[in-house]
Amino acid sequence: AQRVTQPEKLLSVFKGAPVELKCNYSYSGSPELFWYVQYSRQRLQLLLRHISRESIKGFTADLNKGETSFHLKKPFAQEEDSAMYYCALSGRDTGNQFYFGTGTSLTVIP
Amino acid sequence: NAGVTQTPKFQVLKTGQSMTLQCAQDMNHEYMSWYRQDPGMGLRLIHYSVGAGITDQGEVPNGYNVSRSTTEDFPLRLLSAAPSQTSVYFCASRHKYSNQPQHFGDGTRLSIL
Q: What is the mean pLDDT of residues A58-86?
């Protein structure tokens, strides 16, 4: 069963425009949700996790249990935000394994 | 701390050859995992381990073997390489609690001719 869905494979926005990367999940228990970022040919790095409720590099994400979503948002995109973004889910019902979405490639146009 | 270290970074194999991708972590993490990353398919779990001596299959285990003799090391073996195994392989580790994030290595870019 698809646990994490990222509906957009590619997303392009202009520099300074708001950006939202969508993530929907399917999970019966209490999920732990994460966003990872992968810059070109580099390792995946943790960007955000929902329990921290923090803002990293201007990005925020709110867990909406009613809509089963964990969308990533930034009010003003920067060129250095161009990267691949992965939403991931973990939880006791997954045996504490991570399930990743298929990723969204974000391009910020100068 | 070095974090998660993968070797080699690049490798080219011929069909039918075998090889081992190395992964080591120095964070005393209980959990370790191997993923493959393919265009349009995201990261798919190959095998994982919840501790030394314990391994289990993930989503795409066929053609791969793993072992976990120590907490630090989690090698991935390709038994008889096939072109379909051309991919980028990532090793990851984390503490055992579900709210702890994964830490990734730099990846191994593997091509099978």
A: 94
